[in-house]
Amino acid sequence: MRGRTAILMDYLKPLEIAEYDVPDPDAGAVIVRITQAGLCGSDLHTWRGEYGNPLPSVGIPLGHEGVGAIYSLGKDVTTDFMGATLKEGDRIVFGMGYPCHRCVFCLSGDHNDCTNFKLTYKREAGEYPYFVSTYGDYLYLPPLHPIFKVPDELSDDVVVSLNCALGTVFQGLKSAGFQQGQSIVTQGAGGLGLYAVALAKDIGASQIIAIDSQKPRLDLARELGADATIDINELKTPEERITKIRELTGDRGANVVMELVGLSDLLPEGIEMLGPSGTYVEIGNFGSQTTNFRPSSVVRKALRIIGVRAYRPAYMPLMLDFLTRNHQTIPLDRIISHKFSLDDIGKAFDQSEWSGHSIPVIRSAIIP
User: Fold this and answer.
1) Are β-strands 65-73 and 91-94 bridged in parallel, bridged antiparallel, or unpaired?
2) Are residues 292 and 349 in the same domain?
3) Distance (Å, rounded) from C-alpha 181 to C-alpha 283?
4) Mean pLDDT over residues 258-272, rounded?
5) Residue 20 has what pLDDT?
């Protein structure tokens, strides 16, 4: 059996499709047939070359978000990580990255803080076991990699972003200690921001405010539970947006503000939106951008600033429970607004590129 996988050879250029023989799984490993892969914002940042890493001559595999069905089980793999029996054809979700399992952070259960954490199993394309990213027909999951069976009632559209966008925001809210009755601002209403809105509503937020430049995203944010939205095309300056947040919160400021776009200059703006003892959660910035802000802003209001990378795999069953409880009452499936075949992955990136202009895409998915 042969399968396809997508490779980034040059920044801002269409991904190339390569074919390889599908290997047999090693003992303890699992091979997944990808049914849907999410086009994550970090993939767009990588595609643009914003992380500053030179590409190897053979290119790199791309894609880490997704859901699939078991194609082949390695020896001794009979259950998922919650003890549910597994067989070929069962749908599963899997951890987004690959921790080493051999550092002090992994030992503590903080696999997302692993000192050797990787988004793809191999950095260079063409290395065994070949299928190491989700933009392809198959995905090889090594031994000890967290996997969880997907309830039959959840569609791929609802589950596809669990193992990145939903998971990372879930971790961010956990790390911030967000509680019922608190207020939150999301700087961004893409995949991360929309899941933050839905999760905050489920927790029992007193007020949810979403900020973005794309009207379709803001409209969906309201359907998912946002009490107010701010269009930056209308409130164009940080000062205007900060004033609006103060107005909406009765001059108290928000308990939590989350940066979910990847623009460094949002940090000083977001800090000014917080009330006393508030928490700023930085998720979107993985690149080399810098910004300036006044440390006195943090001291004056006793604020916290925390960064979040990925999530504890142990939270994945909690996220499946969240989706199961809510998928019939709120339109979680509509976060995926556009779908593309693997052969059209170049179109997916072009049409999902939001930087500098308005687009109808909320979030895209690749379907092999």
Assistant:
1) antiparallel
2) no
3) 23
4) 94
5) 97
| Distant-in-sequence, close-in-space partners of 285: CB < 8 Å, separation ≥ 6 | 259, 262, 263, 264, 267
- Give the pair of three-digit tokens for residue 76: 């001794």
* Distance set, CA 140 to CA 22, 100, 283, 321, 365 (Å): 9, 16, 27, 26, 20
Torsion 169-173-179-181 (CA) sign: negative
Count of other CB atoms within 10 angstroms of residue 119 = 22
pLDDT at 151 over 90: yes
Model confidence, pTM? 0.95
Amino acid at 359: I
CATH code at 359?
A: 3.90.180.10
Q: What are the CA-CA distances from residue 333 to residues 158, 197, 337, 341 (Å)? A: 5, 14, 8, 18
Count up the domains in the chain and report the number. Answer: 2
Residues 8 and 143 in one domain: yes
Tens of pLDDT along 55-80?
999 999 999 999 999 999 999 999 99
Return the CATH number at 256.
3.40.50.720
Q: Are residues 59 and 182 in the same domain?
A: no
- CB of 23 closer than 8 Å to CB of 144: no
Which residues are 280's β-sheet partners? 257, 305
The token duo for 59 is 């290119």
For tokens 């191999």, the residue is 122
Q: What is the pLDDT of residue 262?
A: 86
Q: Which domain holds residue 92?
A: 2-161+336-367
- Is residue 298 a part of any domain in this protein? yes
Give the whole-angstrom CA distance, residue 58 versus residue 80.
Answer: 34
Q: Which of 288, 307, 326 is the endpoint of a domain?
A: 307
Question: Is 80 exceeded by the pLDDT of residue 102?
Answer: yes
* Torsion angle of the four alpha carbons 312, 317, 319, 325, in this order, in degrees rounded to the nearest 10: -160
Residue-wise pLDDT tens digits, 175-208: 999 999 999 999 999 999 999 999 999 999 999 9
- Mean residue pLDDT of the chain comes to 95
